[in-house]
Amino acid sequence: MAAVLMPEPDLTPNDLKYTALEGEEKQRIIDHINEEHFSELVGFIKAFTPLTDLSPKQHDVRLVDIYAQGIGLQVSALASLASDAPQSDTHYFIAFPEVITHLNELQYQYIALKQQADKKLRKKTIILAEKLFQVKSGFAVTDNMYRLLLSAPAAASDNSCFPASEAGYAYLFDLSHNLSLQTASNSDTAAAQRTHRYYTLRKVSTNPTTGDEEAWVDVFLHGETLGAQWLAALTPKDTVKTKREVPENIAHLQQGQSLLIADETSIPTVARLLELWQNPIAPLIIYITQKAADQAYLQDRQANPLIDDALTVLPVMNADLAQGAPLAELIAHTLTQHLKSNPIHIQKVWGALETSTSKALRALLKPTLNLDRSAMIVKGYWRQD
């Protein structure tokens, strides 16, 4: 169980009670967590401190330092609150289940904290477990999107619990289970070492002939990547291995006018979202692709009579644009131009793009939409090497 010392307004990186970790990647890790994992930081505060009713609309929560023993969080009031709530910066220390000595050990302790917090808050959480699935078949959905059909091996029926009614549920695939580093020799050395890839569960269907559950995993093909080599190496009846499962943070989209922003890597999440959508207000969608032909991907989905007639998809082509600020500016411009002729009040945002693009886009959308951090989730799904 995580421990908390509170309040400690004088908690600093030089506090002798804790050993601050050092490393070249430390500030990048802190910035990444603050930018893309705000809801998790709020969860830590609500689960492990007396601030169980903390509102992200009225408070900011930031990671301020990483220690061998845990993490330091800062809670800042954004508005005048009741007298029993913090009125200024307040610092809390959240202890890891186990002490670490290097930043490369942080991930598992952070996940352990998240699992504990999610359990207390009764939320779905990350699952760390190796699972084997069997390859049934595969085919192209568009010119550059390949659908892999998987089922649980008959000898491992306990592995067949696919989350059928969740959008954005991701599995961490261990590509080395099927692809040796020697096979991946066309990739550079650094890329060849990164033999794990997150792929999103597009949908779960029932085979009409066998009655078996089948999972659809849609993979975007863009050149001679490790993922493309992995797919090329797979044949029916092969097994694939996953090592982690991560639910997507989409609960905020259940009410209000939503904006969804996706590229080819995250559009499977949007497609499943649209199939399961129960919010009576149809979302506005911005879909970014390198090839015009891949815009057809969203047509390959189950109809949703609740929203389909009111659905608007704004296509954005980025064949010649660099990731980061250039693409983010084009996306923001596309949205601005649309809102000029179609004025709507956007209340919620979910987006997933290349990491530098998502960071630049958040900075552009924040003053335009004026949303709090819990209502605007724009995250990095992949990183440009």
TrEMBL record:
Coiled-coil segments, which residues?
Answer: none
Q: Where is the DUF2470 domain?
A: 26-110
InterPro entries, per this entry?
DUF2470, FNR_nucleotide-bd, Haem_oxidase_HugZ-like_sf, SIP_fam, SIP_rossman_dom
PANTHER family per UniProt: FERRIC REDUCTASE, NADPH-DEPENDENT, NADPH-DEPENDENT FERRIC-CHELATE REDUCTASE
**Which stretches make up the SIP-like Rossmann fold domain?**
258-384
Q: What is this protein called?
A: Siderophore-interacting protein
Where is the secretion signal located? Answer: none
